[in-house]
Amino acid sequence: GKWHLGVNCKSHRDHCHHPLNHGFDYFYGMPFTLLNECQGTDDPELAKSLQDTYWLYTQMIILAVLTLLIGKLTNLFPLKWKIIVCLAICGLLYFISWFSSYGFTKYWNCILMRNHDITEQPMNLEKMTPNMLKEAVSFIERSKHRPFLLFVSLLHVHTPLVTTEEFQGRSTHGLYGDNVEEMDWMVGRLLDVIDKEGLKNTTFIYFASDHGGSLEAHRRNAHLGGWNGIYKGGKGMGGWEGGIRVPGIVSWPGVLPAGTVINEPTSLMDIFPTVVQLAGGTLPQDRVIDGRTLLPLLRRTVQRSGHEFLFHYCGVFLHAVRWHQKDS
Predict the structure, then answer these.
(1) Long-range contacts formed by 132-136: CB under 8 A, 24+ apart
(2) So what family is this one in (predicted)?
C-alpha cells in the first residue's frame, strides 16, 4: 500500500528509503502519498499556493511581452525586436522551470512499485483497490505455512477518496462514507481469507489509523475529511486530540478476550516492540526504543500502559505532551 517515506537519498538508484532497505522482504504499492493530482479531477494539492504564485508571475510576463509587442507593432514604443524576443525567451524558460515539476506531478509522484521496479507510471487508481487486495490475499496464501508479517497501508479515507464504482453512492455520508465502506469491505475480505486458511486463532491482527480526520478537506460544500467526534482539531493541527487520538482494534481469538475495552494511552510506536515479542526476538540495545509492547496490556497481566509520557512532535518542534500519572 502507501509507503509515504520516499525512495532515494542522493541518487535515483540508491533506494535508501525503500521498504526493502528497512526490514521488509516484499513491497507492492506507492512509495509516496496520494495526491489530488493522481486522480486529475480536483484542484492541484502539491504546493498549491506556490503554483498559484508561479502562474501569476508567468501571466505578468506574458502580459508584458504582449504589451511590448503591441507597442512595437503600433509604433508606440521605440523598442528593438531583440528586447522583446529575449523577454519572451526568459518567460518561456521561467515557465518551463517550474511547470516541469508541478505540471507533471501525476507522472513523477503517482507511481506503483513492486519491490524495486516501477510497474505503473502514472498508476491506474481505478484498479488500485482490486490490485492491492489481490496482492495481500496472494501473500497470505503463499505464506500460510510459516510465520509472516503483512502490513497493509490502505489508500482509503485519504483524499482524493478514490472509490470503485461498485461502492459509489452506498453511504448516506457521501463520498467519504462510500470510501469507508469500501475500506471496511477490503478488511473483511482479508479477515475471511485468514479464517478460510485456518489462521484465525494463530494470527494477531491490529487495525488503526495514523491520524484523525482532515477537517480542511472540502470540495465546494462537501466535507471529505472524516469526523473526530468530541475531540478538538484534526490532521495536521499540532497536538490536539482530534489529530492524534485514534481508535485501535485488536483481534486474536483464543488468546485475547473478546469485547474488552482498554482506555489506556498507547501509540503506533508500540507496534514494533509488540511484533518483535510475538516473533520471539529481542529489541535493539544500541538505541532508545520509544514503543512499549502491547501484549501485557492486552492480556490484562498489567492494568496500566507502559507510557507515563507521550510526546507529539511536528518535525523538530514539540507540540503536545500527554502525562499519564502512574498512581493517579
Answers:
(1) 132/1, 132/28, 132/29, 132/186, 133/186, 133/189, 133/190, 135/28, 136/190
(2) Belongs to the sulfatase family.
d(Cα 74, Cα 67) in Å, to the nearest integer?
A: 11
Rounded CA separation 327/304 (Å): 10
pTM value is: 0.86
- Cβ-contact 198, 141 below 8 angstroms: no
pLDDT of residue 40: 75
CB 240 within 8 A of CB 231: yes
Provide the pLDDT for residue 221: 78
Residue range 2-56, pLDDT digits in tens: 999 999 999 988 999 999 999 999 999 999 998 888 887 667 778 888 999 999 9
Gap between the Cα atoms of 253 and 244, Å rounded: 28
Buried b (16+ CB within 10 A) or exposed e, 121-147: ebbebeebbebbbebbbebbeeebeee
